[in-house]
Design brief:
111 residues, mainly beta, 7-stranded mixed beta sheet, 0% helix
């Protein structure tokens, strides 16, 4: 079983930035694709970004140009740099690897 621990969430004003981290316990971290999902209150989870083992990335349309997903295979950690945050980005953000989910980290964008 893989343990995934997200961190870096918080309260930020519109236009601000946050950097989320996801630390993974798996030993073959570098071999697998990973993803960030988010779920806003009363809404379904949506896929925000993915990154493959060879660093190919894809993004949800509404975050393209604002969010950047990356990974550090030495630290077994995936990141999500979020810039120009909007109130509609408010959600719990989860990292996912090989079907395993972290516990999530809350991101709140509000003035």
């Amino acid at each position: 079983q893989i343990q995934l621990v997200e961190s870096g969430g918080g309260l930020v004003q519109p236009g601000g930035s946050l950097r989320l981290s996801c630390a993974a316990s798996e030993s073959d971290f570098d071999l697998y694709s990973m993803a960030w999902y988010r779920q806003a209150p009363g809404q379904q989870r949506e896929l925000v970004a993915t990154i493959t083992s060879d660093n190919n990335t894809r993004y949800l349309g509404s975050v393209k140009g604002r969010f950047t997903v990356s990974r550090d295979n030495v630290k077994n950690t995936m990141y999500l740099q979020m810039n120009s945050l909007k109130p509609e980005d408010t959600a719990v953000y989860f990292c996912v690897s090989r079907g395993f989910w972290g516990q999530g980290t809350q991101v709140t964008v509000s003035s």
